[in-house]
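Quick one, tokens below. Sequence please?
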């Protein structure tokens, strides 16, 4: 493993890092964290691999960190390297691989240890490592405690390194025990999340190593992870609301709820497009940690020769799922062929909709003109010789394939969906934007370019030049700057970190409006006036929101009173409960503070002297 001198700090012995040439001493090492390495290296895996490669190529020591339990991890790593997706210089550090190759020695009180050996266990499955045939895991159940399942994980020498028990009916719902080679229980956890955080702390130690969490699942359990000398970043790779929802008021996407709820716990939150960053700020405010940084690409040095490009070749790349609307791409091909254009469509990707899409090609009579390639390892090569990339998604982040198409001179034609296409494509200059769902307009736009080769070639050249913005060197520089700014921000004073607000009283007026009294506890610092104050109502079930600048009746350092209009919360669905939060701007940062009460709070309605209903 490699040891680096980073300033005055030496990277600890628990972690392997790449050794770039040249190594810039002012670049702190960076870990790219994701859940696992996908089998076909697409999607999140592709992004993580490219980012790690970009950091390494630009002089920053890097590594990829994963948590998934994969008995064939080494085969997966070998495949990633052999396909040229990742340099062999960049380590992939996996939780299970780490403990299967290292002993775990620590002192623990025996009172925290549950003896699971007292049960009789029935084995259900025994996965092995295919590269050497060693036992990876045993999976067992017991009839003595209903709903209790146990998984034991093994080192290659046959010793157990982890016991993981899940009990649906028991008092202890989850119990994870790390085990030394000698068979001693060394650490105990009540959740996998706590165990993963502990391991990441072990890797980082007390050194200056920064962390980028790409996986939204990993981000959900790493939001609370902290290290004194590490800055922690996460990335929104897709829309923060459910597909088709208003970004300012719609229900939140399930995968991002935890990250949004704990947004102040991140040193950096990045968005792939400026539009999404602006929408996020409009909805949640600017906590001072929000950045726009694109995903990097490996752009070709020269625009591919137009004589080697088949302008009638149209390409789709992505998952074959409902939200990608691949059926509409097929109908566009049908419409173009019906109009006399000899186009073909190559579909690269897999998904649950493949069978129905193949049926559609037969129904439309274009089955000989549409090719399903599955997961294709040579996407960039195919884009270099294709005329168009066609995207018909309901929503996007900033699709990597769109940038790769531009960097190959392949003209992107995309529905104008949130987010990405409109930020990345300048309509009729670096590509074509189509109103969402307008198949007829897509047919017309592509037909127009097929009839005008000079215009098509001009767009191809412009797209190729525009892709410079996404080169790995430029993206890497933005990340280095973002981490530098995050470290500087840590040296400042966060006045809002210890502030809380609680409900004191609600008065219902005769006209239906509400007067809400709120107590403020903690030190705010700075100055807060009417212009720096707001209220947010959020539906408990729908997660829809309403933002208001309510009438401020009373304000002082210990509390305030606001009047909410009688139509506040009109978005409420099925009589759901509403959560009230206060937005405060302090020293150029915004804080969203949930208004709550004591756990022992009781509410009693009564009539005021004016005949209004109040609560105490």
């Amino acid at each position: 493993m490699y040891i680096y001198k980073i300033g005055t700090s030496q990277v600890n012995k628990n972690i392997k890092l790449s050794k770039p040439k040249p190594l810039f001493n002012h670049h702190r090492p960076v870990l790219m964290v994701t859940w696992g390495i996908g089998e076909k290296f697409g999607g999140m895996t592709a992004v993580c691999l490219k980012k790690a490669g970009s950091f390494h190529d630009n002089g920053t020591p890097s590594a990829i960190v994963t948590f998934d339990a994969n008995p064939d991890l080494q085969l997966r790593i070998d495949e990633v390297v052999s396909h040229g997706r990742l340099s062999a210089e960049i380590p992939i550090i996996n939780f299970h691989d780490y403990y299967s190759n290292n002993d775990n020695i620590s002192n623990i009180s025996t009172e925290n240890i549950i003896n699971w050996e007292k049960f009789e266990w029935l084995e259900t499955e025994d996965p092995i490592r295919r590269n050497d045939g060693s036992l990876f895991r045993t999976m067992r159940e017991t009839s003595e405690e209903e709903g209790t399942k146990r998984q034991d994980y093994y080192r290659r020498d046959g010793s157990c390194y982890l016991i993981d028990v899940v009990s649906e009916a028991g008092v202890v719902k989850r119990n994870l025990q790390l085990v030394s080679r000698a068979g001693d229980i060394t650490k105990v956890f009540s959740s996998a999340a706590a165990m993963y955080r502990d391991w990441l702390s072990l890797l980082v130690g007390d050194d200056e190593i920064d962390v980028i969490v790409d996986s939204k699942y990993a981000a959900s359990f790493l939001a609370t992870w902290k290290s004194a000398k590490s800055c922690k970043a996460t990335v929104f790779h897709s829309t923060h609301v459910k597909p088709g929802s208003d970004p300012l008021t719609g229900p939140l996407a399930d995968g991002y709820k935890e990250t949004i709820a704990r947004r102040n716990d991140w040193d950096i939150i990045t968005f792939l497009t400026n539009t999404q960053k602006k929408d996020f700020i409009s909805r949640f405010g600017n906590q001072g940690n929000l950045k726009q940084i694109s995903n990097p690409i490996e752009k070709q040095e020269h625009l591919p020769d137009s004589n080697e490009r088949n302008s009638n070749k149209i390409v789709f790349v992505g998952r074959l799922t409902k939200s990608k609307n691949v059926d509409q791409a097929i109908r566009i091909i049908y419409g173009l062929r019906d109009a006399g254009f000899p186009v073909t469509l190559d579909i690269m990707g897999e998904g649950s909709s493949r069978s129905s899409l193949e049926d559609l090609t037969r129904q439309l009579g274009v089955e000989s003109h549409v090719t399903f390639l599955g997961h294709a390892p040579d996407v960039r090569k195919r884009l270099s010789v294709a005329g168009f990339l066609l995207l018909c998604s309901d929503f996007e982040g900033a699709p990597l394939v769109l940038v790769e198409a531009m960097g190959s001179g392949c003209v992107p034609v995309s529905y104008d969906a949130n987010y990405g296409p409109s930020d990345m494509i300048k309509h009729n200059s670096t590509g074509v934007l189509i109103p969402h769902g307008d198949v007829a307009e897509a047919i017309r736009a592509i037909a127009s370019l097929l009839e005008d080769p000079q215009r098509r070639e001009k767009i191809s050249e412009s797209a190729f030049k525009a892709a410079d913005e996404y080169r790995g060197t430029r993206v890497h520089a933005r990340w280095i700057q973002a981490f530098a700014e995050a470290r500087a921000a840590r040296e400042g004073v966060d006045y809002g970190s210890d502030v809380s607000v609680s409900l004191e009283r609600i008065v219902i007026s005769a006209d239906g409006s509400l007067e809400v009294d709120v107590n403020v506890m903690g030190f705010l610092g700075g100055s807060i006036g009417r212009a720096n104050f707001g209220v947010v109502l959020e539906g408990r079930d729908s997660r829809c929101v309403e933002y208001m600048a309510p009438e401020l009746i009373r304000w002082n350092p210990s509390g305030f009173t606001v009047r909410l209009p009688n139509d506040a919360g009109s978005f409420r669905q099925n009589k759901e409960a509403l959560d009230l939060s206060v937005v405060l701007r302090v020293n150029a940062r915004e804080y969203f503070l949930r208004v709550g009460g004591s756990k022992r709070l009781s509410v009693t309605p009564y009539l005021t002297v004016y005949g209004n209903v109040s609560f105490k």
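The chain has four domains: 5-99+197-292, 110-193, 306-470, 500-615. DSSP finds 15 helices and 31 strands in the chain.
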